[in-house]
Design goal:
Elements: H1 3-7, E1 11-15, E2 22-27, H2 30-39, E3 44-45, H3 49-58, H4 67-78, H5 83-87, H6 93-103, E4 115-116, H7 117-134, H8 140-149, H9 154-166, H10 171-188, H11 198-228, H12 236-242, H13 247-250, H14 257-288, H15 290-304, H16 316-320, H17 323-335, E5 341-346, E6 350-356, E7 362-366, E8 371-375, H18 376-379, H19 383-386, H20 420-437, E9 438-442, E10 452-454, E11 458-460, E12 465-470
Parallel strand pairs: 2-8
Antiparallel strand pairs: 1-2, 3-5, 4-12, 5-8, 6-7, 9-12, 10-11
Helix pairs in contact: 3-10, 6-7, 7-14, 10-11, 11-14, 14-17, 14-20, 15-17
Bound molecules: protoporphyrin IX containing FE (HEM).
The site of protoporphyrin IX containing FE has 22 residues, from helix 4, helix 14 and helix 20.
């Protein structure tokens, strides 16, 4: 257990010096977390600082609202997370191919050049998420490659102009800048307003214009479809998008365009960095544990074959039935849950089931207005719940293991992550395609790869660099 919890208790209160009032209760006990997120869900709200910090980027929506506004948003968004959409993994392959291109061919010794892997995954997940949302990808890998090579050919210039007509600015860069500020605002807590300025506002403006562009098309298309019933004659490009883009469905539920844009932004933010960071942690752990890397490589070879000699298609069903791959993902999310530290504010006087009394086994009182902070990171590593090897990376622990509230990388209860299946599938797909293509991994930054940093989520503190060895057969 971590020093602070060891010196206090698995649940402990921070009390005001003069009035003796409880300010906050810290806990890693599953029964308390279950009470906050599920059993007594209505007694708690997300703290106000979170929506304030995020407001210029994404306003109000499912991720930042409380009460009825949240329930309304969640209902609308949930309807779009159909299993058909989640199962459509074939759409990821184009983004994988762009990723290979961005990473470059292997050198003569069979190894790729050094890759800044979090950046690569961030671009991959942004491209996949924008396609999921708008039916058209932000193509951030392509933009980055163009910047790198400064391709000035006539074709490239024409393409870049066509792009500018569709996409107002380089969305990826603006999105990253906006989120860097958001991370700082979240860190500043009540002083969130100190992190502001022209750069931030400009990035927010660019990101909003990007979304607005697609929303305009979706609205125009929906209106034209109502009038003519002959959709195929109106904006044929969009008819193609419409088949996949979530926005073309959401447009019917949101007459207010700003509310729709906020919702779309919230989904992009919720889904982009989380999945990319989890993939990055996966590679870090595989690099640090060659025995797991080898076992996973063999399992993937057996089920799917290699890139040059595929045995079976990489489908949703095949990914789910590759047991060792699933264990690896569960274990990565246990050690590195993207939301390591979370809080809820009590809206009424209430209780948590354990943590009170001399032995901590009695209920503990929570006053209205005080905060319950739950530490998922430490709960996922608590020896009492996971055994003496709880800090070790051991996918094998998942054999026959059933979990409850001691394992909540996606939380649980009414606010459980809506993109859980989406994220698990995307992770499984990317890991599989990596190990079909590469048979070894090495890192010049190994010494520091496992240092934790917090952006809006848990990410490696320092740059993570990898080289991958291309299979010869
Ligand atoms: C490995 C990847 C992911 C992890 C670990 C993760 C984790 C989480 C967690 C812990 C929450 C609860 C946050 C809170 O209430 O404070 C959450 C909420 C949410 N997630 Fe995810 N997420 C992931 C990927 C995604 C993806 C890909 C999407 C969408 C495409 C998504 C959509 C959402 C939404 C909409 C919510 C808000 C649910 C609500 O408040 O009702 N997530 N996620």
């Amino acid at each position: 257990m971590n020093k602070v919890f060891r010196e206090n208790a698995p649940t402990y209160a921070i009390v005001e010096k003069f009035f003796g009032k409880t300010k906050a209760v810290y806990t890693i006990q599953p029964e308390n977390i279950k009470t906050v997120l599920s059993t007594n869900f209505t007694h708690f709200h997300r703290p106000r600082t979170m929506p304030n910090a995020l407001d210029p980027v994404m306003g109000q929506g499912v991720f930042t609202s409380n009460g009825e506004a949240w329930a309304h948003s969640r209902g609308l968004v949930r309807a779009q997370f159909s299993s058909k959409r989640v199962r459509n993994v074939a759409k990821l392959e184009g983004h994988v191919q762009n990723m290979w291109e961005a990473m470059g061919e292997a050198l003569q010794d069979g190894w790729t050049e050094e890759q800044e892997i979090l950046l690569i995954y961030n671009r991959f997940t942004l491209d996949a998420a924008t396609e999921f949302m708008f039916g058209t990808s932000a193509e951030s890998h392509e933009v980055a490659m163009r910047e790198k090579t400064k391709d000035r050919s006539a074709e490239s210039i024409v393409r870049s102009w066509v792009r500018k007509l569709i996409v107002p600015e380089d969305f990826g860069t603006a999105f990253d800048t906006a989120l860097d500020y958001v991370a700082l605002r979240l860190k500043l807590g009540r002083l969130w307003f100190m992190a502001d300025g022209v750069e931030f506002r400009l990035a927010c403006y660019k990101v909003r214009s990007y979304c607005d562009n697609y929303i305009r098309r979706a609205v125009a298309h929906a209106e034209a479809a109502k009038e003519t019933a002959h959709t195929a004659t109106f904006d044929p490009g969009f008819v193609e998008d419409r088949r996949f883009g979530l926005i073309s469905e959401l447009v019917h539920s949101y007459p207010d365009k700003v509310a729709l844009r906020n919702q779309v932004m919230q989904l992009l933010v919720a889904g982009r960095d989380t999945t990319a960071a989890s993939l990055c942690w996966t590679m870090i752990l595989l690099d640090a544990h060659p025995e797991v890397f080898t076992r996973l490589r063999v399992a993937i070879e057996k089920d799917f074959g290699t890139e040059a000699h595929p045995l079976a298609p990489v489908t949703f069903e095949n990914l789910k039935s590759c047991t060792y791959l699933q264990w690896v993902i569960f274990e990565v999310l246990r050690l590195y849950p993207t939301g390591p530290l979370n809080a809820r504010k009590a809206t009424i006087d209430t209780v948590l089931p354990v943590g009170g009394g001399a032995d901590g086994k009695n209920p503990i009182a929570i006053r209205a207005g005080s905060t319950v902070v739950f530490n998922t990171y430490l709960m996922h590593r608590w020896e009492e719940l996971w055994g003496p090897d709880s800090w070790e990376f051991k996918p094998e622990r998942w054999e026959d293991r059933k979990t409850g509230w001691e394992y909540i990388p996606f939380f649980g209860g009414p606010q459980t992550c809506l993109g859980q299946q989406h994220a698990l599938t995307e992770m499984a797909y990317v890991i599989t395609r990596f190990l079909q293509r590469y048979d070894n991994i090495t890192s010049s930054t190994r010494q520091t790869n496992r240092e934790n940093g917090i952006r809006t989520i848990l990410v490696p503190k320092r740059t993570v660099l990898f080289r991958f060895h291309k299979r010869t057969s």
